[in-house]
Protein backbone atom coordinates (compact mmCIF):
# COMPACT_ATOMS: atom_id res chain seq x y z
CA UNK A 1 0.00 0.00 0.00
CA UNK A 2 1.34 3.42 -1.03
CA UNK A 3 1.79 5.76 1.89
CA UNK A 4 0.76 8.59 -0.39
CA UNK A 5 -2.87 9.18 -1.31
CA UNK A 6 -4.11 11.19 -4.27
CA UNK A 7 -6.75 13.57 -2.93
CA UNK A 8 -9.13 14.99 -5.52
CA UNK A 9 -11.18 18.04 -4.60
CA UNK A 10 -14.46 18.52 -6.47
CA UNK A 11 -14.89 22.25 -6.08
CA UNK A 12 -18.40 23.25 -7.11
CA UNK A 13 -20.13 20.64 -9.30
CA UNK A 14 -23.42 20.66 -11.15
CA UNK A 15 -25.68 18.90 -8.66
CA UNK A 16 -26.33 21.63 -6.12
CA UNK A 17 -27.83 25.12 -6.17
CA UNK A 18 -26.47 28.19 -4.32
CA UNK A 19 -29.27 28.35 -1.75
CA UNK A 20 -28.17 24.99 -0.37
CA UNK A 21 -24.90 26.48 0.96
CA UNK A 22 -23.22 29.88 0.76
CA UNK A 23 -19.89 28.03 0.69
CA UNK A 24 -20.52 26.75 -2.88
CA UNK A 25 -18.13 28.74 -5.10
CA UNK A 26 -19.98 30.41 -7.98
CA UNK A 27 -17.88 33.04 -9.72
CA UNK A 28 -14.61 32.41 -11.53
CA UNK A 29 -12.72 34.19 -8.73
CA UNK A 30 -14.45 32.11 -6.04
CA UNK A 31 -13.81 28.78 -7.84
CA UNK A 32 -10.12 29.69 -8.39
CA UNK A 33 -9.70 30.86 -4.77
CA UNK A 34 -11.29 27.63 -3.51
CA UNK A 35 -9.10 25.56 -5.81
CA UNK A 36 -5.88 27.20 -4.67
CA UNK A 37 -6.82 26.78 -0.99
CA UNK A 38 -7.87 23.15 -1.53
CA UNK A 39 -4.50 22.46 -3.18
CA UNK A 40 -2.67 24.13 -0.29
CA UNK A 41 -4.66 21.86 2.08
CA UNK A 42 -3.46 18.72 0.27
CA UNK A 43 -5.53 18.17 -2.89
CA UNK A 44 -3.39 17.26 -5.91
CA UNK A 45 -6.28 16.98 -8.39
CA UNK A 46 -8.92 19.70 -8.80
CA UNK A 47 -12.20 18.63 -10.40
CA UNK A 48 -13.76 21.63 -12.13
CA UNK A 49 -17.27 22.63 -13.16
CA UNK A 50 -18.40 26.21 -13.89
CA UNK A 51 -21.54 28.17 -13.04
CA UNK A 52 -23.31 31.22 -14.45
CA UNK A 53 -21.77 34.00 -12.36
CA UNK A 54 -25.01 35.95 -11.86
CA UNK A 55 -27.20 33.03 -10.74
CA UNK A 56 -24.96 30.07 -9.90
CA UNK A 57 -26.71 27.85 -12.44
CA UNK A 58 -24.40 25.03 -13.62
CA UNK A 59 -23.34 25.72 -17.24
CA UNK A 60 -20.85 24.44 -19.84
CA UNK A 61 -19.63 27.92 -20.76
CA UNK A 62 -16.23 27.80 -22.48
CA UNK A 63 -15.32 31.37 -21.61
CA UNK A 64 -15.83 30.60 -17.93
CA UNK A 65 -13.91 27.30 -18.20
CA UNK A 66 -11.07 29.13 -19.96
CA UNK A 67 -10.81 31.75 -17.21
CA UNK A 68 -11.00 29.16 -14.39
CA UNK A 69 -8.48 26.74 -15.94
CA UNK A 70 -6.07 29.55 -16.89
CA UNK A 71 -6.14 31.14 -13.44
CA UNK A 72 -5.82 27.79 -11.65
CA UNK A 73 -2.89 26.83 -13.87
CA UNK A 74 -1.23 30.16 -12.98
CA UNK A 75 -1.71 29.68 -9.22
CA UNK A 76 -1.26 25.93 -8.57
CA UNK A 77 0.44 22.91 -10.15
CA UNK A 78 -2.39 20.59 -9.15
CA UNK A 79 -3.80 18.36 -11.89
CA UNK A 80 -6.80 20.18 -13.42
CA UNK A 81 -9.67 17.82 -14.24
CA UNK A 82 -12.64 19.53 -15.91
CA UNK A 83 -15.94 17.71 -16.08
CA UNK A 84 -17.58 16.19 -19.13
CA UNK A 85 -20.50 15.19 -16.92
CA UNK A 86 -21.70 18.75 -16.65
CA UNK A 87 -25.15 19.31 -15.18
CA UNK A 88 -28.83 18.73 -15.84
CA UNK A 89 -30.00 19.70 -19.32
CA UNK A 90 -26.60 19.75 -21.06
CA UNK A 91 -26.10 17.83 -24.31
CA UNK A 92 -23.13 15.48 -24.66
CA UNK A 93 -21.67 17.89 -27.24
CA UNK A 94 -21.89 20.77 -24.77
CA UNK A 95 -20.41 18.55 -22.05
CA UNK A 96 -17.49 17.53 -24.32
CA UNK A 97 -16.73 21.05 -25.56
CA UNK A 98 -14.30 21.75 -22.68
CA UNK A 99 -11.89 19.29 -24.29
CA UNK A 100 -10.98 22.04 -26.75
CA UNK A 101 -8.68 23.28 -23.98
CA UNK A 102 -6.79 19.93 -24.22
CA UNK A 103 -6.84 19.39 -20.40
CA UNK A 104 -4.41 16.73 -19.11
CA UNK A 105 -7.35 14.91 -17.49
CA UNK A 106 -11.16 15.00 -17.59
CA UNK A 107 -14.01 12.89 -16.27
CA UNK A 108 -15.66 10.25 -18.45
CA UNK A 109 -18.91 8.83 -17.06
CA UNK A 110 -19.27 5.11 -17.74
CA UNK A 111 -23.04 4.76 -18.12
CA UNK A 112 -26.51 6.26 -17.86
CA UNK A 113 -28.36 6.56 -14.54
CA UNK A 114 -31.33 8.28 -12.96
CA UNK A 115 -29.90 11.19 -11.02
CA UNK A 116 -32.21 12.31 -8.28
CA UNK A 117 -31.57 15.73 -6.80
CA UNK A 118 -35.25 16.30 -5.98
CA UNK A 119 -35.24 15.24 -2.31
CA UNK A 120 -33.39 18.51 -1.60
CA UNK A 121 -36.16 20.52 -3.26
CA UNK A 122 -38.52 19.49 -0.49
CA UNK A 123 -36.40 21.19 2.10
CA UNK A 124 -37.64 24.39 3.63
CA UNK A 125 -35.04 26.61 1.97
CA UNK A 126 -35.76 29.94 0.21
CA UNK A 127 -34.98 28.53 -3.25
CA UNK A 128 -35.10 30.75 -6.34
CA UNK A 129 -37.73 29.42 -8.77
CA UNK A 130 -35.02 28.13 -11.18
CA UNK A 131 -33.28 26.35 -8.27
CA UNK A 132 -36.41 24.50 -7.19
CA UNK A 133 -37.09 23.61 -10.84
CA UNK A 134 -33.48 22.43 -11.32
CA UNK A 135 -33.79 20.10 -8.33
CA UNK A 136 -37.45 19.07 -8.76
CA UNK A 137 -36.96 18.48 -12.51
CA UNK A 138 -34.41 15.76 -11.72
CA UNK A 139 -37.37 13.49 -10.96
CA UNK A 140 -37.39 12.95 -14.73
CA UNK A 141 -33.64 13.37 -15.32
CA UNK A 142 -31.56 10.65 -16.93
CA UNK A 143 -27.81 11.35 -16.73
CA UNK A 144 -27.30 10.13 -20.28
CA UNK A 145 -24.09 8.28 -21.08
CA UNK A 146 -24.95 5.76 -23.76
CA UNK A 147 -22.29 3.59 -25.38
CA UNK A 148 -22.34 6.10 -28.25
CA UNK A 149 -21.90 9.04 -25.84
CA UNK A 150 -19.02 7.40 -23.97
CA UNK A 151 -17.36 6.46 -27.26
CA UNK A 152 -17.80 10.02 -28.58
CA UNK A 153 -16.21 11.58 -25.48
CA UNK A 154 -13.45 8.94 -25.30
CA UNK A 155 -12.50 9.68 -28.92
CA UNK A 156 -12.50 13.43 -28.25
CA UNK A 157 -10.15 12.76 -25.31
CA UNK A 158 -7.91 10.61 -27.51
CA UNK A 159 -7.66 13.53 -29.96
CA UNK A 160 -7.04 16.13 -27.26
CA UNK A 161 -4.44 14.01 -25.43
CA UNK A 162 -6.66 14.07 -22.33
CA UNK A 163 -6.51 11.19 -19.87
CA UNK A 164 -9.99 10.04 -18.83
CA UNK A 165 -10.88 9.52 -15.19
CA UNK A 166 -13.70 6.99 -15.52
CA UNK A 167 -16.64 7.71 -13.19
CA UNK A 168 -18.33 4.45 -12.20
CA UNK A 169 -21.65 4.70 -10.32
CA UNK A 170 -22.55 1.03 -10.04
CA UNK A 171 -21.14 -2.39 -10.73
CA UNK A 172 -22.98 -2.78 -14.07
CA UNK A 173 -20.95 0.08 -15.47
CA UNK A 174 -17.78 -1.98 -14.98
CA UNK A 175 -19.20 -4.38 -17.57
CA UNK A 176 -19.84 -1.37 -19.86
CA UNK A 177 -16.15 -0.64 -19.45
CA UNK A 178 -15.23 -4.28 -20.17
CA UNK A 179 -17.26 -4.06 -23.39
CA UNK A 180 -15.69 -0.75 -24.41
CA UNK A 181 -12.26 -2.31 -23.91
CA UNK A 182 -13.24 -5.20 -26.21
CA UNK A 183 -14.36 -2.56 -28.71
CA UNK A 184 -10.98 -0.80 -28.40
CA UNK A 185 -12.66 2.43 -27.27
CA UNK A 186 -10.79 2.38 -23.95
CA UNK A 187 -7.70 0.49 -22.85
CA UNK A 188 -6.10 -0.18 -19.46
CA UNK A 189 -4.50 1.06 -17.37
CA UNK A 190 -7.45 3.13 -16.23
CA UNK A 191 -8.08 5.69 -13.52
CA UNK A 192 -11.37 4.71 -11.91
CA UNK A 193 -13.47 6.92 -9.62
CA UNK A 194 -16.07 4.90 -7.73
CA UNK A 195 -18.89 7.41 -7.20
CA UNK A 196 -21.28 6.17 -4.51
CA UNK A 197 -24.35 7.80 -3.05
CA UNK A 198 -26.11 9.29 -6.06
CA UNK A 199 -29.86 8.64 -5.88
CA UNK A 200 -30.35 6.45 -8.94
CA UNK A 201 -27.15 4.41 -8.56
CA UNK A 202 -25.11 2.66 -5.89
CA UNK A 203 -25.32 3.77 -2.26
CA UNK A 204 -22.30 4.98 -0.26
CA UNK A 205 -22.06 1.76 1.76
CA UNK A 206 -18.89 -0.25 2.51
CA UNK A 207 -20.02 -3.53 0.93
CA UNK A 208 -21.01 -1.69 -2.26
CA UNK A 209 -17.57 -0.11 -2.61
CA UNK A 210 -15.89 -3.44 -1.86
CA UNK A 211 -18.08 -5.22 -4.40
CA UNK A 212 -17.21 -2.66 -7.10
CA UNK A 213 -13.50 -2.86 -6.28
CA UNK A 214 -13.42 -6.67 -6.25
CA UNK A 215 -15.39 -6.83 -9.50
CA UNK A 216 -13.00 -4.37 -11.19
CA UNK A 217 -10.00 -6.41 -9.94
CA UNK A 218 -11.58 -9.60 -11.32
CA UNK A 219 -12.52 -8.06 -14.69
CA UNK A 220 -9.35 -6.07 -15.35
CA UNK A 221 -6.68 -7.34 -12.92
CA UNK A 222 -5.49 -5.52 -9.80
CA UNK A 223 -2.68 -3.62 -11.58
CA UNK A 224 -4.82 -2.51 -14.55
CA UNK A 225 -6.24 0.53 -12.75
CA UNK A 226 -5.80 3.12 -10.09
CA UNK A 227 -8.91 3.86 -8.09
CA UNK A 228 -10.47 6.48 -5.90
CA UNK A 229 -13.72 6.70 -3.98
CA UNK A 230 -16.14 9.65 -4.02
CA UNK A 231 -18.97 9.37 -1.51
CA UNK A 232 -21.87 11.73 -2.20
CA UNK A 233 -23.55 13.37 0.80
CA UNK A 234 -22.86 13.12 4.52
CA UNK A 235 -21.67 10.79 6.12
CA UNK A 236 -21.15 8.96 2.80
CA UNK A 237 -18.22 11.14 1.76
CA UNK A 238 -16.05 10.36 4.77
CA UNK A 239 -17.19 6.75 5.13
CA UNK A 240 -16.05 6.06 1.56
CA UNK A 241 -12.86 8.07 2.17
CA UNK A 242 -12.06 6.07 5.30
CA UNK A 243 -12.64 2.71 3.62
CA UNK A 244 -10.65 3.73 0.56
CA UNK A 245 -7.72 4.84 2.74
CA UNK A 246 -7.85 1.51 4.56
CA UNK A 247 -7.84 -0.44 1.27
CA UNK A 248 -5.01 1.53 -0.35
CA UNK A 249 -7.22 3.60 -2.62
CA UNK A 250 -7.38 7.33 -3.31
CA UNK A 251 -9.98 9.82 -2.16
CA UNK A 252 -12.30 12.50 -3.56
CA UNK A 253 -13.94 15.13 -1.37
CA UNK A 254 -15.45 18.54 -2.06
CA UNK A 255 -18.54 20.74 -2.02
CA UNK A 256 -19.65 19.21 -5.33
CA UNK A 257 -20.42 15.97 -3.52
CA UNK A 258 -21.08 16.95 0.09
CA UNK A 259 -21.93 20.16 1.98
CA UNK A 260 -21.20 19.03 5.56
CA UNK A 261 -17.93 18.51 7.43
CA UNK A 262 -19.64 17.07 10.54
CA UNK A 263 -23.13 15.72 11.19
CA UNK A 264 -24.40 19.05 12.40
CA UNK A 265 -21.82 21.36 10.79
CA UNK A 266 -21.93 22.74 7.27
CA UNK A 267 -18.58 22.91 5.51
CA UNK A 268 -17.32 26.48 5.22
CA UNK A 269 -15.00 25.69 2.31
CA UNK A 270 -13.54 22.92 0.15
CA UNK A 271 -10.25 23.26 2.07
CA UNK A 272 -12.09 22.26 5.27
CA UNK A 273 -13.19 19.00 3.62
CA UNK A 274 -9.68 18.36 2.27
CA UNK A 275 -8.19 19.02 5.73
CA UNK A 276 -10.54 16.38 7.22
CA UNK A 277 -9.49 13.90 4.50
CA UNK A 278 -5.82 14.64 5.32
CA UNK A 279 -6.48 14.00 9.04
CA UNK A 280 -8.21 10.72 8.15
CA UNK A 281 -5.29 9.71 5.93
CA UNK A 282 -2.87 10.46 8.73
CA UNK A 283 -4.76 8.01 10.96
CA UNK A 284 -4.00 5.35 8.32
CA UNK A 285 -0.39 6.45 8.09
CA UNK A 286 -0.89 7.92 4.65
CA UNK A 287 0.01 11.40 3.45
CA UNK A 288 -1.33 13.54 0.60
CA UNK A 289 0.51 13.00 -2.68
CA UNK A 290 2.12 16.05 -4.22
CA UNK A 291 0.92 17.05 -7.72
CA UNK A 292 4.09 15.47 -9.14
CA UNK A 293 3.47 12.20 -7.32
CA UNK A 294 -0.20 12.29 -8.34
CA UNK A 295 0.82 12.60 -12.00
CA UNK A 296 3.07 9.56 -11.63
CA UNK A 297 0.37 7.52 -9.88
CA UNK A 298 -2.27 8.51 -12.45
CA UNK A 299 -0.01 7.92 -15.45
CA UNK A 300 0.03 11.57 -16.48
CA UNK A 301 3.00 13.18 -18.12
CA UNK A 302 5.12 14.95 -15.43
C1 LIG B 1 -21.47 12.74 -8.62
C2 LIG B 1 -20.60 13.62 -9.39
N1 LIG B 1 -21.29 14.67 -9.97
C3 LIG B 1 -19.79 12.89 -10.40
C4 LIG B 1 -19.09 13.77 -11.30
O1 LIG B 1 -18.39 14.63 -10.87
C5 LIG B 1 -19.29 13.53 -12.73
C6 LIG B 1 -18.62 14.54 -13.66
O2 LIG B 1 -18.48 15.69 -13.30
O3 LIG B 1 -18.28 14.11 -14.78
ZN1 LIG C 1 -18.31 16.62 -11.45
UniProtKB/TrEMBL annotation:
**Classification via InterPro entries:** Aldolase_TIM, BKACE
**Stated name of the protein:** 3-keto-5-aminohexanoate cleavage protein
Indicate the secretion signal residues. none
**What keyword terms does UniProt attach to this protein?**
Metal-binding, Transferase, Zinc
Coiled-coil annotated residue ranges, if any: none
Task: Give the cofactors, semicolon-separated.
Answer: Zn(2+)
Q: Organism, per UniProt?
A: Streptomyces meridianus
